[in-house]
Specification:
Blueprint lengths: L1 H29 L10 H43 L3 H15 L7 E7 L5 H12 L5 E7 L6 H10 L3 E5 L4 H4 L8 H14 L4 E4 L5 E2 L2 H6 L5 E3 L2 E2 L6 E7 L2 E6 L15 E4 H5 L13 H7 L10 E2 H5 L4 E2 L14 H4 L4 H5 L4
Parallel strand pairs: 1-2, 1-4, 2-3, 6-11
Antiparallel strand pairs: 4-10, 5-12, 6-10, 7-8, 8-9
Helix pairs in contact: 1-2, 1-3, 2-3, 4-5
The structure holds 2-acetamido-2-deoxy-beta-D-glucopyranose (NAG).
The site of 2-acetamido-2-deoxy-beta-D-glucopyranose has 4 residues, from helix 11.
Length: 352
Amino acid sequence: MSIPRIASLQQQSISEVLTTSTTIATTSTNLPPIDKSANNNKTTQSSANIKKLLISNQILSKNNLTKQSLTTKYSQEASMSAQQNSPLDINQNTVNSFTSSINPPPPPLYIITPTYRRPEQLAELTRLGYTLKHVVNLYWLVIEDAEEPTPQVTKLLQKINVPFSHLVAQMPAKYRKNKVKPRGVSNRNRGLEWIRANASDGVLYFADDDNTYDVEIFDEMRYTKKVSMWPVGLITKFGVSSPIVKNGTVVGFYDGWIGGRKYPVDMASFSVSVRFLLSRPNASMPYKPGYEEDGFLKSLSPLKLTEIELLASNCTEILVWHTQSKKNPNAMSLDMGKYNNTNLVHLRNILV
Ligand SMILES: *[C@@H]1O[C@H](CO)[C@@H](O)[C@H](O)[C@H]1NC(C)=O
């Protein structure tokens, strides 16, 4: 007697899954694709191309998301059914999947990734991109310190197929001759500018391409009301950089280099709500090596230490690491006399 009921519930659940996938996809499509904030000719020019890319990327990702969520749901249900003999249990699983599928999508995450052309670039972006692919309702702002977006990077971003914008922002010439360069600052400020022009809610996070991320941190950070913080592993001789937490609030910071900073934290250790950023129209990152995080967080004032939301179970877990990768020498140039008409000609275009 229970069989027809299960069948019809499963039917219902499948059509709900379809509706939900569409909802998620629509939400990502609703993330603003048009860059209203472009303020120089080069960016404007490339953003016209980017708009085209973005649209096709989003169409692709819409189809893909639908297919992907469906496949996941189907295989989850299939494996649950396979494991369980009781029709009642199958029924319960179907109901669970039904109720979880009617929840609204979570707040959007805007991930700002500064990057620049170097031998490790494509490898690092590949690793980060496929991590971000596990996170729903995420928009990836990949911002190169370059004159023009690198075509190999654009191609990779399209292939990974996380909703993205590929922008450029060059370091001002006056800093380029410095021994210690303020790397990534122009890129991150460009990302902030994009968010101010295009976003109204959700959460922003600076995710450099040389870190390792447990996907759990993304789902924790997306409910940030003002500023959230958590530990980052593999930082300085201390092995970790973290807020010091006592009775649920920040009483200081543990970091191998304090340097007179109010916020001695790593770039990967905090997220900021978009609404909070918008309430601080002058907040930006200074071109001051070593003081980028501190300067940006100070520019968000007023912000009390007691207002900082502590993630990773009150900062008792490490969910992000500053892995870095070995610095590789630039590739030697190819002897075209010797290797013309071979595959190596194609590889040469990828190498830096
Ligand atoms: C964090 O600490 C506060 C205060 O001790 C406590 O109320 C809260 O439940 C803790 N949160 C987690 C996730 O452990």
